[in-house]
User: Fold these one by one.
Assistant:
Number 1:
Amino acid sequence: MRKGRFLFALFLIAVAAYAVYSASAWRFKAALFPLSVGIPLIILAATQLLLDLFGKAETAGGPAVDLEFTADVSPDVARRRVINIFLWIAGFILMVFLLGFPVAVPLFMLCYLGLQSGAGWWQSIGLTAAAWGFFYGVFQRLVHLQFEDGLLQSWLGL
Amino acid sequence: MFDALIEGLFLVLQWKAFSLMMVGMGLGFVVGLLPGIGGAATLALMLPFIFKMAPVEAFAFLLGMHSVAATTGDITSILFGVPGEGLSAALVVDGHPMAKRGEAGRALGAALMSSLVGALIGAATLAISIPIVRPLVLTFGSPELFMLSVVGIACITSLSGLGARSQIRGFAMGLFGLLLSAIGQERQSGSLRFDMGMMYLWDGLDLIPVIVGIFAIPEIVDLAVRGTAIAGERPKEDLQRGVLEGIKDTFRHFWLVVRCSAVGVFVGIMPGAGGGVAQWMAYAHAVQSAKDAKEREGFGKGDIRGVLGPGAANNSKEGGDLIPTIAFGVPGSAPMAILLGAFMIMGLIPGPDMLTKHLAVTYSMVWTLVIANIITVILSLAVLNQLAKVTYIRGGLIIPFVLFLVFVGSYTANGQIADLMVTFFFGLLGYFMVLFGWPRPPLVLGFVLGKLIETYLFISVSRYGFSWLTHPIVIVLIVLTGFVIAYPFIQERRQRPGRSADA
């Protein structure tokens, strides 16, 4: 946790330093806000970083009012599952990029349900059909959202 | 005035206006449940349909839809941890942990009932305050509005946990949110900032992909890691009893609900602040109302007060929002700006006429808010049993469905694949923030308020130099900010003797 907090503080310093460096070359109007925000951000993040490096372990108070991840799963399993779900999410985005939403949604649903969730193939097909019906009915027919074609459709001229 | 009030009620109850309100409510119900597609987008989509309607019918249709979307957005936030409305994220913080604990029914009951109380308070305030509120709004210039936003961020940083280091992290995240809001074309000079050569960033980051990513993705990751249903392996909640308990909770903490409703109305009245700010400020108020650290401990882990506060503010702000829109033609938020368009389409000019010649129409809006909210809560309570069962379905079956909703919702922001990338990036960021104990709420509020704060700061400095810092209301707000920041330290200090006594 402490190491992660330290790395995150370092990330904030890098972002804020980039912001201040870029803003220093701009006109007053454009630079006023990023400078007024970026400089204190560097100071606060650096303070946090130094406290994490040299300060005593944090005891006061309690955790932030925010989500806390489950501790019921062993760290190794948790790490593996985290990487797995992020890969699925990235895969879904890739499918949308290549095939567009109307094809990617049912394909992703079927793949995830069949390969990852452990649902039987008939159940997967049924749920995929329901999800696609919902997608088509609500987003395409009711709300009339326009979805871009995927890269493959554009290449193939479909 | 009383005659106009009664006339307004009868106008709404006419069969055509009432039917259109019901149609609008049906649409609002569905839209509210879908992540990303907010009330503003739906209002804009429905605007062309009002051309042939009478003013009362048009406002019954639009306001019915808008107020219901605000309420049902809470349902998605609680059940899935995905903000149904881009701005109803504050309810995720305590509402979703309750669902995980097998108390979805209670959380939903509390959210709906507090929403109803909030809506009634907002509508009542709208009804009685239009003549009174004018001087208040006119007193608030850019410097005051700037400081008010700073107070909002200070309130949220107090949620970062007690102790100096938590406060540092909270403030840092608030500033980080402000910095993110600076991406894109700067309004005063037109300069491009931090666009990294990408045209997508010229308009800045959109709210929906950022908020949905930062809140929804970590919840989905947690669900995937646990490998269980949202409510875990817990025995099924007695839903009827849970919902009833939630309703009772609203009245157990009635004073808190009233105060948070007042926060919502106040934020609604202030131009530009909007619903997200109202929810977070109400949430911060609920947390700060805790008497000691022990009482505060439950927040973030499923404290019912963390549901009641934002729930009440979410709907009371609708009444507040309408006040400047009707009285001055100054819309307080994006949906109200669209509603102003409806005024123009109907040939109505906001301002004194709405308080004299068209007073009955104005009151018909008040009644629409009241009636639409009452019907929504009754209907929602009727279907809650079915909705809450979702939390007992195996996570593996829920995840792909929620994921596709999240990404379609994000895509609605600009209709570009880049929206999905932004959601993914902020999902990763949100994950690491939770993992390393950096609070997300201050970042979100900073981001929501950033553009406004920058505009107010720029106008204040351009117009007054630094003398705006000596404006009386500004000084009061600076002191208030100081107090809000110092309050957790005071609380911590107060506890110390008790702790040592216990030891």
Number 2:
Amino acid sequence: MTELEPPTATHADPSAAQQAPQLLKARGLVKRLRSGDRELTVLNGVDFDVRAGEVVAILGPSGSGKSTLLGLLAGLDRPSEGEVALDGAELNQLDEDGLALLRRRLVGFVFQSFQLLANLTARENVLLPLELTGVPDAPERADALLLAVGLAERSHHYPSQLSGGEQQRVALARAFAPRPRLLFADEPTGNLDGATGEKVLALMLALQREHGTALVIVTHDLEVASCADRRVHLRDGRVISIEHGARAQGRHDGLEVLEPSPATDAAGALGSAGLPGTP
Amino acid sequence: MNLRTLLTLVARESRGSRGRLGFVVACLAVGVAAVTAVNALVDGIQSSVRGDARALLAADIALEARRPLPPELFAYLEARADTTLARVTELSAMASAPAGSRLVELKAAEPGYPFHGALVTEPAGLLPGALAADEALAAPELLAGLELQVGDALSLGGNAYRVVGRVVDEPDRVDFALTLGPRLFLSPAGLARSGLVQFGSRVNHRVLIDLPGEPPVRELEAFVRDLRRGVADAESLTTKTAADPTPGLSRTLGRIEDFLGLVALLSLLLGGAGVAQIVRLWMDARTPAVAVLRAIGMRPREVALVYLTNLAALALVGCGIGAALGAAAPATVGRLLPELVPTGLPFPWRAALRGVALGLATAAGFALPPLTAVWRVPPARVLRAEATPLAAPRSVRIGSFVALFAVVLAAAYAQSDRGWTAFAFTAGVFLLAGALAGGALCAARLAGHLPRERFGPTLRHGLAALARPNSGTPAAAVALGAGVLVVVAMGLVSTRLRREFLAGIPKDAPSVFLVDVQFDQSSSVRALLDAHGATGVDRTAVVMARLGAVKGTPVAQLLAGSEGRSRWALSREQRLTFADVLPPSNALVAAAPAPGLPQNTLWRDPARTEVSLEARFAEDLGVSIGDTVTFDVQGVPLELVVTTLREVDWATFRINFFVVVEPGALDGAPGWELVAARVDAAQEDALQTALARAHPNVSVLRLRPLLEKVTAVVERVASAVQVLGGAVTLTGVAILAVAALATAARRAREAALLKALGVTRAGVARLMAVEHALVGALAGTLGGAGAWILAYGFLDAVLDLPGSPALWVVPAAAAAGMALALVAGSLATARARNVPPLVSLR
């Protein structure tokens, strides 16, 4: 298991993060879903920004719209209203093929339920996005990543032959393989026990730092969120607060933990970073 | 995505679904085996039926005339490298012996005759072409009449000929219009030696043409067309081809070919429906994987291409297996039923390759619509399983259906070779599928509106499963229903055809015809018939005549532009008869108005000389009520007005006539009596001998060999229909079972959930059984009703066999569909019932 390095000041310093180029910009996102005869507004006017190399956590209770927001930001789904620009490309302007090609080029995913392809071995799962983009050194890259996540020995196993933690490590390797500029993680530790979850999280952050990838994590686990540069709190489809996170505070076991306080929760975040028009 | 990546992905994708995809291979293997087998069998049977047809002509093509054939014809034929010729000359002459003399029908044939069929002689193996100039082969009735034995001599035109053998059967003696006496075969040199062929003698000159191999109908027709273009005088020759030795026979064969082609195509489409059903289930099962592939950046068309390629590989395997199995069919059937398919046929490459091509096209065509599911899978499904499905782009939706339509159309065209038939068939298939889906949808709606609370929990669950949104009921009903439809329609049509064939020759059909009975011999002949136990004696006066003009236009002028049946109708020698009233087994189909007269009155206009024509014959001549036809009755023109058209039931084999003339019109014309009677086979020889002694001019025509020949062809065709029907029925049942299995497999997860909710295994089995039974009954009812309509339409409109099939097939099909769905369903859910309840929590 890779030991985590202490976070650098750059990561912890919001102003430093703001100096990085903007990678994702979302404005006025609304998502309405039909459920039987009713229409539910799952997201209601959300703005969201991500800068290169930044780690952002989206927090909130069940049903607050976290995963829906992630889907819209990643171009997996389309908003009912509002706009998302990813690396300068307006997602509304793209058709399904355009979205697919954009995801292929820029985006990686880690899911709560791993979402490995059951009929592919661990190595083939990692190879898949590389083959799609036509990377010449795909096998070498896949092997290096599997080594990095500690699964070189088990690279020819099928997902069903791997533990949950191992599957999520394969998913990490697959997500980082094409060197995405932005990684979306939906409850990446949600299906794992505490210890395994911590290890997977540490690994993800290590890879994120190594590749300089921006990371958007959806979670309801405060411990996971504490690793983020910014924490965006959602409730009932709205952003209720944004915390800037000194990732350096309250470290233990190689993880940095931020104890959220009502003060930061309520006021500290709003207007300080990430929102449009704020310095 | 480059080819290598595609193939890598295809190879990997196939891993997870090998069991399910085995279905695709099985489905296509069964479907392609059926198509290949049917095509190979049709080819085999056609070659044997065609062989029969060629035997009836003893050649591929025959040209004949009442005058010496023009030298330019032989120059033309001999210039063609692909023909082998044999000249045949026939004429009537008197043969004498010490015991008396008889009118015989002489036939001289060059070596080569018969090209097809066999001349049966005693001793065996004698051929007219190989006879010496003073040798002859005689029919047994001639030897009996002249009290001769093989080895004795008879005299022809003052020259002696030694009889070296008996002629028991000759292949091309089916047209008895010209038969005036027993047969006597000579060699061409022997005929020349007789000195009987002189200017003015009534001689029939014929040239038999043999073409290499087994020329298809098209080639025969092309040959005749070329001939008519190449030889100035060819228009006036009577032309017969193996494709059309007698118009009636070729019409029957044509219908049978249509029927078999249609059956083969339906079995193929049934396989296609199976593939569609499996692909749909495959896509259902792979939805999560498709969502992941799309999320990580694969375009829908790339995902679809992976699945389509995967499917193509499987289809190729299935088609290969199917073609191999199907190609073995003619040999297998030939071993079991040697009279149906000749043994030693070459490997049916054509049928096998055609089977593979049609199978691949069908697999692709039927796979495309369910593959559009790839476009509908939302990538957001990786986050939420219940993410709203996307709409496939209009181009994809419409394109996939256009492709399917095009594939069915192309397959139909490949099978039928006729554009309009192919289009009508394709439209019919889509309408039927639409009707099945619509019926199922209506039934599902209806199930939704039933007051389910009143039923027990088991039935309630079954009905709910039928009615719930996206239940797959319409798709399952279409697949199952289509299977039931094909099987039931096949059964109905082949049963009816077989019955029709076997009933075609009635038990009381006459076995002998007496030709040329003079009117003053009538009572004496009758007495002889009675003495030999003849029954069903039927006597009719006959006057021979030729058509002179139709609606005032001379026939010679009409012949120039005519083809096929119409040419045959114009040029044949007509037997005219007269009758006071409508003969039995005839029915009027059109008549000139005659107020005050009963509807069935044959003669309706006292002011004019009337004629009644058989309806089809009138159609071939192009005449209708009120038109005139002029007959040349041995030199005397006779103008008649058509006042009635009759439909004749030829299947009775009784004496019937195309042309019936008003009594009185033929008074004074030279005629004779045609007598039909049924005589025991054992009495036939004695009757013949007695008649030959008492009335040497009367020819006895034994109908039995001819009837047996016709019956053999008909029997062969009937068993072909039965064998092919059986093969397709098996295919239908197999694919039906696959469809039922696949449908049932959808419900595996639900079993786990039900068990988690506390339903016992037996309870789950009952719930599912009710659902399968309902879907099966629905599909069976729709399929049975569709089959009834299809069979009714096909029999009535295409085969001209009116009368509705039995209605009980609909409830029977419903019961069978239910039983099949139950069996297949419980087999398929056997594993599902054992799924631990925990599965539902995962």
